[in-house]
Design a protein that fits this description.
Elements lengths: L9 H6 L2 H9 L7 E5 L6 H14 L4 E5 L13 H7 L4 E5 L4 E5 L9 H5 L9 E5 L8 E5 L15 E6 L10 E3 L3 H19 L1
Parallel strand pairs: 1-5, 1-6, 2-5, 6-7, 7-8
Antiparallel strand pairs: 3-4
């Protein structure tokens, strides 16, 4: 591995995360590492995560996922009982079965979700690692994803929390650890090494 810049060593490169520190300080018995994927639209964040999650799960890791969505997303289906009850005025709708449960909350007024608040909604006893899609302007550890043909600027020069660059031209990663965006196995292996580093620094 290489440090992000000359002022930081491997540990600070891989562990320094405002969200991780804040979250762990409030949940000392259930410290969870949080890792984001930062990229511009069209880079393929969800496609990569679809490949990464089963690879990480196969090693025994229990994955939690947080995704930033557009304003008017809806996971419910018109005509279903839960949908009808929400539309009737329920501010929160919790639907549960023997296999899964889902909590839908209606915001009284439009407000951007905060990652630190969303993390507190997760069951820390049921997961080992939280992956985050979106929230690229929030300070926490991230892997930058890049496809050269999109012609977008690099994010890591302005974001010291980016710990690696996964690109379709990995030779152009600059000072960061270089990953091939099309090699999910290599990215999964990097995440495992990052987790080992986190564990060593959190005792």
């Amino acid at each position: 591995f290489q440090a992000v810049d000359g002022r930081r060593d491997l540990d600070s490169c891989l562990v320094g995360s405002e969200i991780f520190i804040r979250y762990s300080s409030n949940h000392r018995k259930n410290t969870l590492p949080v890792l984001g994927f930062a990229a511009f639209s069209g880079t393929g964040k969800t496609t990569l995560l679809e490949k990464l999650i089963p690879r990480l799960s196969e090693t025994g890791l229990r994955i939690g996922m947080i995704k930033h969505a557009h304003h008017n997303f809806d996971v419910d289906q018109p005509g279903k009982d839960s949908y009808r009850l929400r539309k009737a005025g329920a501010r929160q709708m919790l639907i549960a079965s023997s296999r899964r449960q889902a909590l839908m909350t209606e915001n009284v007024s439009a407000q951007e979700p905060r990652l630190d608040q969303l993390l507190t909604r997760l069951d820390t006893n049921a997961i080992d690692l939280v992956l985050v899609e979106g929230f690229k302007h929030v300070s926490f550890a991230k892997i930058e994803l890049r496809r050269e043909q999109l012609g977008k600027p690099l994010l890591y020069p302005d974001d010291p929390d980016i710990i690696a660059l996964a690109s379709d031209q990995p030779d152009n990663s600059g000072p960061l650890p270089a990953l091939d965006i099309n090699d999910a196995d290599a990215i999964a292996a990097f995440i495992h090494r990052w987790l080992d580093t986190q564990a060593g620094n959190t005792g």
